[in-house]
What does this fold into?
Amino acid sequence: MPANFRAGPVDFIGNGSWSTYNALQAEIRRRLSHGLYFQANYTYSKAYTDFEGSDANFSALLDLAAGGTVEKKRQTNDITHIFKANGVWELPIGPGKRLLNFDGFLGQMFGGWQMNGIFEKRTGRPISFISGRGTLNRNGRSGKNTATTTLTVEELKNSMGIFFDPVTGRPLIMDPRLIGPDGRANGQFFGHPAPGTIGTLHLTPVSGPGFWNFDFSLIKRTRISERTNVEFRAEFFNVFNHTNFITTENQTITSATFGQVTDTFDPRIIQFAVKFNF
It folds into this structure.
C-alpha cells in the first residue's frame, strides 16, 4: 500500500490485545464451632498479557512484524504463589464457658474475649530490565525495549532477593555486583541493544522480593443488658513489624537508583476503639 502523502506518522489504535490467567486454587475451612473458625487458601497462578492500561493510556507495539509477541509479559499483578489464612477464636473463659465460669463481676471481667488473625504470604511481583533507548521503532517505544545481558535468566533469578549495599547499607533487590559504582547497572552484565534491534531479554524475566504480613486483633465485649454491650478493640496491623519492600516493575539500566528499594509497606500500626452496641 503506498504511503499517504497527506499524513505524517500515523498510529492505528485497535482492540487487538490479549491476556490470559490460569490458576490452581485450594481452600480448607472450619465453620464456626465451639467458638473457633478457621479458613486458609492457596493459589498457584500465571497471568500474561501484551498490554496494560486503559482507553486513556494507549500503548503501541514495539515490533509490528512480531504481532505483539515482543510485548508478551507477566501482568503487573501476577503473583505465582499466594497463601492466606484467617481465624476467629472466642476464648473459652467466662460465664457458660469451660474455664472461669463465674457470674457477677468476675464473669464480666473474664468473659467475652475474642482473638482474630489474618496472615498472608506471597511471592514477588514481576520485574523487567529496560534499556530505555529507542533503538527500534522510535524513542516513544523505548519503555518496552529491554536490555542485553551476559547472564542467563536462571543466573538473573538467582541474583534477585534482599541484599544491602556494602558501602551505604541501603537495601537492594539484587546482588550488589550487578550495580555499578555510580548506582546504575553494571556494564559488565547489562548493555543497550544495537541500532535497529531490541534487547536480548524478554519482559518480566524475574520476580521482586516476596511479601508476608500478620494482622491481629483482640476484642472484649462486656454485656450491659440483653440487647446492649460495650466492645473494646485492640488492633495490630503488621503485628511483627516485618519490613516488606515495594519495587518498581521496570528497572531501567541507566537509572541512578537501579536495583534500589523504592519504598516499603506500612510498619506496625496499633489502634484502639470502644463501641457501644445496641
